[in-house]
Write a structure and sequence with these properties.
This protein is mainly beta. The protein is built from 1 helix and 11 strands; from the N terminus they run ββββββββββαβ. About 0% of the residues lie in helices and about 35% in strands. The strands form 3 sheets. Strands 3, 4, 5, 6, 8, 9 and 11 form a 7-stranded antiparallel sheet that branches. Strands 1-2 form a two-stranded antiparallel ribbon. A two-stranded antiparallel sheet has the order 7-10.
Amino acid sequence: VQVSAADGYGNTSPVTVLTFPVIINDTDLDGIDDPLDEFPNDPERAATSYYPAENVYNTLVFEDLWPKMGDFDMNDAVISFNFKSILNSSNMVKELVFNIKARARGASYANAFAISLEGIDENNVESLTLQQGIDVTAISAESGHQGELVVPIIPNLSTLLPSGLGNEFYSTSNTDNRGSKVLSVNLVLNQ
């Protein structure tokens, strides 16, 4: 394709020739050449994106009594996360994987942890599962929400991160270095 530009004064740019790659091999017929397609045998998946980056986690800290004076330790729930988005050939999300590391619990309350996904209707969910270790369980989004999908991940942080080893809480002191509990939520959308 030959392209040139002109401004309002009649000045024109030199002609530029643009070429587009020819798809040579597209096994799944999704319009993405196999060498560029992360899923060359799956017409519903083509590429992967990560937040914040592949194998990198951000951390959320929560204080359930905020802004009560004297309780600013921000350790009632400490959760690290990594999001993986799998996109189709139209750059639309087909699948989301939420990798969660529950690191610490400093709360006496039975706090829960969920995520809200704005703009996703529960009727657009093909499947929703939670994995902890080798156990994979089908889960359901909370009902009654308009314009968002609310996915409960940890129904009770005290159950997942129990007291023990002489500590009332979980991994909040120098003497309590129990490891993170790793969870993964897989959401597949109808597209």
